[in-house]
Write the structure tokens for this entry.
Amino acid sequence: MAWNLDSDRPIFAQLAERIQIQIVSGDYPPGGKLPSVRELAAVAAVNPNTMQKAFAELERSGLIITQRTNGRQVTEDEELIRSVRTLLARGHVEAFFSRMQELGYTGEEVIALCGKILEARTAAVPEKSAVYPVPEGDKGGD
Amino acid sequence: MSELIEMRGLTKAYDANHIAVNNVTLSLPRGRIIGLLGPNGSGKTTLIKMLNGLLAPTQGSIRIGGCPVGVETKAHVAYLPDRTYLAGGEKISEILDFFCDFYADFSREKAVDMLLRLNIEPDTKLKALSKGTKEKVQLILVMSRNADLYILDEPIAGVDPAARDYILKTIINNYNPNATVLISTHLITDIEQVLDEVIFMRYGHLVLYTSVDNIRAQHGKSVDAYFREVFAC
Amino acid sequence: MLGKLIKHEWKSTYRMGCLLLFITLIVTFLGWLSFQSPMWRQMSGDYYRVSFSPLDFLSIVVLIMYFFMLVGITYATQIYMGVHFYRTMYTDQGYLAHTLPVGKHQLLGSKILVGGLWVLFVNAAVILSGMAVMGSMLGAVIPEEYAWSEIWRELSPVLGDFFSIFGLDSGLYFTFMILSAVLGPFVSVAILFGAVTLGQLFNKARVLMAILCYVGVCMLNSLIASAVQSMVAFSAWEYGTVVNAGMYCSLIVQALAAVLLYFASYQILTKRLNME
């Protein structure tokens, strides 16, 4: 199944984001091996050169480490993964808050609404446990 | 290493009023998947036919891997024309023999493997194949070669989405960092994400040669959208 | 590469070539059959008591058919070779032929060699067929008590007279006949293929132009041959010499035309190829 990509941004950046999400969500665990450029390019139905570029981007950020003998693997630095994860999460929350602000919600109203919705959801489906236990300090944002 | 393809002042005039390719100077590197884009009648196929020695240029020169178009370049260029050359009462396996005999870089195992994946029996006679299947067989013949340059003329025009995905997957799976794939098409959206670079042609002129990511980064739109803008009437 | 080209060219013309030879065989059988009617047997006896039955009429019709079919087969072979050359070189199939990593001399050479070989085979088959039917006619007409050696003994002085009337040196004549029988097919195929290739110089109606080129070359050829013939006729008064000169000249002119067209084709393929 080819990956769905936006048509207006560089493809390599979107690929890098996809892989980044797969790393922080634990699909690719810390220290785990990554598929080869060719394999992943075939899965995503993109040009291998572009996939290569995405990997290079992730290498620069430190999430991926290339070993000459062992191919590419995810960094074992869980601290780094967590901080990237937090960064991504904050981005989403910031965006969410500004959208809610457009609707005229205050911060408290948003939190209250979130609480209600969360309650309803947990009643319906048991919450999935996160792969990475969120450290105490991160809970509820800082 | 020098560029894979070098065209200088390449021109093809069918007659005084009809200049299909007009003074194109262009160098293409190895290891890229390059889209040759343009509306119908913009000179894509003419350019490709000159690269394959099927048309003699009116002016200008072509070098592929440093050689002028000839026996040497044909040994290293795998070409998928925009038409089917498979005809007659031969079996597919006999065409495989033919390719084995003439192209030193042809891998029979690879071809048979790809055929069987598509449930095409190598014993089938060419006459018994549908047009779509013939096109797939031709693509397999081309991609089973270990060439320096693959030239695919409109490989996805008129095929169903499943076949299109198969073709793109085949191109990606056979990607080789020392080879370049040149794909002509007017259906850009379908193919955009496998391309490194694009060449825009219009009325036989070279309009633009740049990378896909460049277009997206600079113009904030897909190659397809940018193409529509450039070629808007 | 030439060997491989010849092999594949042979494979792709094999079916049709064999079919033509097979048809020749069947046609020959028809020819033989036509001499099995009672009329011919009676001829060897008393001429005045020959009766003519519908079966005999049929046998005459079959004999005429035989003759036309033999002529038809030789033409069909040429036409098939021309069409096959055109199809594999200048239609969509030509996209394969012209992108093979082989030289144009090899490409043309393999086509002419294989095409000429088939024409040679069919011609040989036609000649053999003619001889076989002739034999069956002699077998039917000549009284049974005659032995073949006797026939030959009586016939050879007649042939000798025939040659001397036409001023033919029989040794030279046979050498020439064999030469033209062996070389002729390759020469005619080279001219045919050359004409088809000349047609490619035009932007439109390339098939029509190819046919016109072929007709033109043939007409030019016979024009030159008859011109030479008439020139010889002014200097020599013997009838035979004139006929000979025409014949020799025709082959030489054809061979020259073939060589010329071959190189023209080569030039077109290397410098002026314009696949539609």
